[in-house]
Design brief:
Blueprint: E1 3-4, E2 10-15, H1 21-30, E3 35-37, H2 38-44, H3 51-60, H4 73-82, H5 84-107, E4 114-117, H6 121-124, E5 133-138, H7 141-152, H8 156-164, H9 169-174, E6 178-181, H10 189-207, E7 211-212
Parallel strand pairs: 2-4, 2-5, 3-4, 5-6
Antiparallel strand pairs: 1-7
Helix pairs in contact: 1-10, 2-5, 3-5, 4-5, 7-8
């Protein structure tokens, strides 16, 4: 009988904009949990000189590069908002690379479990079969809008459009294994995160034993 190591135990954190994902993941990080961010991955996979950036140039043209040979993000953003098909083309280039980048970070970890911050997980849950649990940071939509307006200094109308452009609250909760209610003060997250961390350590330990193949 051959014995192979178990696959990594991974928790993915998601939630709507201004729901408090960063406040949650920063607390897990303070407890020693490695946190890998899909937003950081999206930048890493299109760094200057990367194959990802080369594919973007081949698809959209060299005018999307800035003077330093890097992706001109404001121009790219304007392009995908003005051309709906362009968003799908960009996602086809980015998302497989983002998933691979995240998986490589997880595979290199040495802690009992790793955590991923993936804002668009609801739309792409099926592409992450190796995620062990999904933690959704939930907030009442009215409070979410209020926090977004205050955080970004934007109008209520723009905040509403930004919120409604994402997956619905119902859809996010439908993929959740665990939910953090973030309608209270930020300090209230401390106890909730500590409790979940203990639970995740137990589950990761149970998962860590070698498996026969």
């Amino acid at each position: 009988m051959t014995v192979a190591p178990a696959s990594p135990w991974v928790v993915a954190v998601t939630g709507g904009i201004a729901s408090g994902k960063s406040a949650v993941t920063s607390r897990f990080h303070a407890l020693g949990v490695p946190v890998h961010d899909a937003d950081l991955a999206s930048r890493a996979v299109v760094a200057a000189g990367s194959p990802g950036l080369a594919d973007i140039v081949a698809q959209f043209g060299a005018d999307l590069l800035d003077a330093h040979g890097e992706l001109d993000r404001p121009r790219m953003r304007a392009r995908i908002f003005s051309e709906p098909a362009a968003r799908h083309q960009l996602e086809a280039i980015l998302h497989p690379r983002i998933r691979q980048w995240l998986l490589e970070q997880v595979a290199a970890r040495h802690q009992p479990y790793a955590m991923l911050a993936i804002p668009l997980l609801t739309e792409h849950r099926a592409a992450y079969p190796w995620i062990s649990r999904v933690l959704v940071v939930d907030v009442d939509p009215a409070l979410q809008q209020q926090r977004l307006v205050q955080r970004d200094g934007i109008s209520e109308d723009l905040a509403t459009r930004m919120i409604t452009s994402q997956s619905s609250r119902t859809a996010r909760l439908a993929i959740a294994d665990d939910v953090i209610d973030n309608n209270g003060p930020e300090a209230a997250l401390d106890a909730t995160v500590a409790q979940l961390h203990r639970s995740y350590l137990d589950e990761a330990a149970a998962h860590a034993g070698p498996r026969p193949i």
